[in-house]
Write a structure and sequence with these properties.
transaminase activity; 4-stranded antiparallel beta sheet; 7-stranded mixed beta sheet; Aspartate Aminotransferase, domain 2; Aspartate Aminotransferase, domain 1; aminotransferase
Length: 464
C-alpha cells in the first residue's frame, strides 16, 4: 500500500486493510497495557487548533490519536475504576460493539433486517434474567437518563388517560398531577424538567430512619392528603449513594390503592434479584408500571446502553409515535422508533444479546456476587482502620467512607488519591457530609485489585 493511499484525505476502499490491521494492533496494546495505564487522567490537555482545509489522512490521524489522545484517556473499563457505577465491557460485549459499528444498522423499523427481532429477544431475555412477569416489554436506550425520560412521558400519558387528555397530541394544559419521591436520582430530576413537570415539582416523601429508602408510612399519608387527579410515585432500587431499597411491596400496594403510576429506578439495584440472599430487596418490583435499568453498569456492556421496561406498551407508543406516510409500521409489533425518543437508533441491543447468550444467568450472577464480596472486603478494612471511617454499612456493592478526622478536607483527599492513578473513586454526600464513594461493578475486578486500593488508602492515611 503506497504512502499516498495512506494519507489520502477522502475515504476509500483501500483504507480498510490498513485501518483494520492497525486497529487490531492498537486494541491489543491497549488491553495488555490497561493494568498499568493511569486509572484516571485529572489534568488532560487538548491544544486548540483551527480545522484544516486539507485533511491529514487516516494514517496520520490514527497516529495522532494514539500518541496524543489515548494516553490521556481514563482506564474506566479497567478493574480499579470504582467511580459512579461503571462496568467494564466484557470481551464478547466489546466484540459485539465492534460488530455494531461494522454492520451500521439503524434499528428504527422492521422490514429490512433481523436487528429489531434481536432487540426484542434481548429485552425478553432481560425480563427472564430478572424473573419479571412476561407482560413487561421495552427497548434499549442510551442509559438511565433516557429510560427515566420515557418513564416520565409514559406516566404523563397515563395521567392524561385518567383525565380525558391525550397529552402527546394536546399538551399538558389542564393536567392535574402530583409526583411523589424520597431520594430520586439526579437523572430522574433532570427528566422531570425535560418532560415539562419541572425539576422542583416533587412532593418530598420522608425517608426511613438512617436510610435513603422511602418511608411507606409517610407516602401513605401524602397520597391520602393529595387532591391531584393523577399521581406518580418514583421509587428506587437502589439509591445511588446508600444503595437503599424502597419497600416496593408496600409502595406498590399503596399505588394500586390510589391508582398511582409506580416507576422504579433500578439502574443497578435490579441485579440484586440474581442473589438469593438479596433477592428480597426488590420484592414488589414486578408490580411496577415501569422500570429503568442500565446495561453499561453491572451488565458490563459498552457505553452507552440502558433499558426501559413497562407493562403499558400502548401508553409508551401513544407517547412516542408520530404518523407519517414514510413511517408506516412495518409489522405486527410496534417499530422501535415509535417506542422511544430517537427515530435513528444504534444497534445497542447486540452487545446485550451477545452478553446474555454468551454468559447466561449464572455467568452474570457470578460477577455480581464477586463484586459484592469485594465491596465487603474494602468495607471491612475501612471499618477496622484507625484513619478511615465507614460512614454507612455496605449492603450491596457501594462503600461509603471518609477520613476519620472530621476536620480533614475529604474532597482534597479524594483528589489526591485519584491523582495517583492507581484507583478511582467518586465523591458524594451522606447526611450533609462529604464522603468518598467506591462502587464495584466491573467483571474484571479481582481481590488483588482491592489489595492495591487498600495499600493506596494506607499510603494516603500516613499523610493525614
Amino acid at each position: 500500500m503506497s504512502d499516498s493511499t495512506l494519507t489520502y484525505s477522502q475515504p476509500g476502499a483501500e483504507e480498510w486493510q490498513h485501518t483494520l490491521s492497525e486497529f487490531q494492533q492498537r486494541a491489543t496494546q491497549w488491553l495488555h497495557g490497561l493494568e498499568h495505564h493511569p486509572v484516571a487522567t485529572l489534568n488532560a490537555t487538548l491544544p486548540q487548533s483551527p480545522l484544516a482545509a486539507q485533511g491529514a489522512g487516516s494514517e496520520i490521524t490514527i497516529k495522532k490519536v494514539h500518541s496524543e489522545l489515548v494516553p490521556q484517556m481514563s482506564a474506566s473499563r479497567g478493574p480499579r475504576y470504582w467511580g459512579f457505577v461503571t462496568g467494564g465491557a466484557t470481551p464478547v460485549a466489546t466484540y459485539a460493539d465492534w460488530l455494531v459499528a461494522l454492520l451500521d444498522q439503524n434499528v428504527s423499523k422492521d422490514g429490512d433486517s433481523i436487528a429489531s427481532m434481536v432487540e426484542r429477544q434481548a429485552i425478553q431475555w432481560l425480563v427472564e434474567l430478572f424473573n419479571l412477569p412476561a407482560s413487561f416489554t421495552g427497548l434499549c436506550t442510551t442509559g438511565a437518563t433516557a429510560s427515566n425520560f420515557l418513564a416520565a412521558v409514559t406516566a404523563r400519558q397515563f395521567a392524561g388517560t385518567q383525565q380525558g387528555i391525550d397529552v402527546a397530541k394536546q399538551g399538558m394544559a389542564g393536567l392535574d398531577i402530583e409526583i411523589f419521591s424520597a431520594c430520586p436520582h439526579a437523572s430522574m430530576i433532570k427528566t422531570l424538567g425535560l418532560a415539562g413537570f419541572g425539576q422542583n415539582n416533587i412532593t418530598q416523601v420522608k425517608t426511613s430512619k438512617d436510610s435513603e429508602a422511602m418511608s411507606p408510612q409517610d407516602l401513605a399519608i401524602k397520597l391520602k392528603q393529595s387532591t391531584a387527579k393523577s399521581k406518580i410515585v418514583i421509587s428506587s432500587a437502589a439509591t445511588v449513594t446508600g444503595t437503599s431499597f424502597d419497600d416496593l411491596q408496600q409502595i406498590s400496594a399503596l399505588c394500586l390503592q390510589h391508582r398511582a403510576w409506580l416507576h422504579v429506578d433500578a439502574a443497578f439495584g435490579i441485579f440484586a434479584r440474581l442473589l438469593p440472599d438479596m433477592e428480597q430487596n426488590t420484592a414488589g418490583i414486578e408490580q411496577a408500571d415501569s422500570i429503568t435499568l442500565d446495561g453499561h453498569k453491572w451488565l458490563n456492556v459498552p457505553y452507552d446502553c440502558g433499558m426501559f421496561l413497562t407493562r403499558h406498551q400502548s401508553l409508551l407508543k401513544d407517547s412516542c409515535h408520530v404518523a407519517a406516510p414514510y413511517l408506516v409500521q412495518s409489522g405486527s409489533e410496534p417499530d422501535f422508533m415509535s417506542l422511544g425518543m430517537e427515530n435513528s437508533r444504534r444497534f445497542r441491543a447486540l452487545p446485550v444479546w451477545m452478553t446474555l447468550h454468551a454468559y447466561g444467568k449464572s455467568g452474570i450472577r457470578s460477577w455480581v456476587e464477586k463484586n459484592c464480596r469485594q465491596a465487603q472486603l474494602l468495607a471491612q478494612f475501612i471499618a477496622a482502620s484507625t484513619q478511615w471511617k465507614l460512614v454507612y454499612p455496605c449492603n450491596l456493592n457501594v462503600v461509603l467512607f471518609r477520613p476519620l478526622d472530621d476536620e480533614v478536607d475529604c474532597d482534597s483527599v479524594l483528589r489526591h488519591i485519584n491523582a495517583r492513578g492507581k484507583v478511582f473513586f467518586s465523591p458524594g454526600k451522606w447526611q450533609g457530609q462529604a464522603i468518598i464513594r467506591a462502587a464495584f461493578s466491573n467483571w474484571q475486578t479481582e481481590d488483588s485489585d482491592v489489595a492495591i486500593a487498600i495499600k493506596e488508602l494506607q499510603t494516603m492515611a500516613a499523610d493525614l
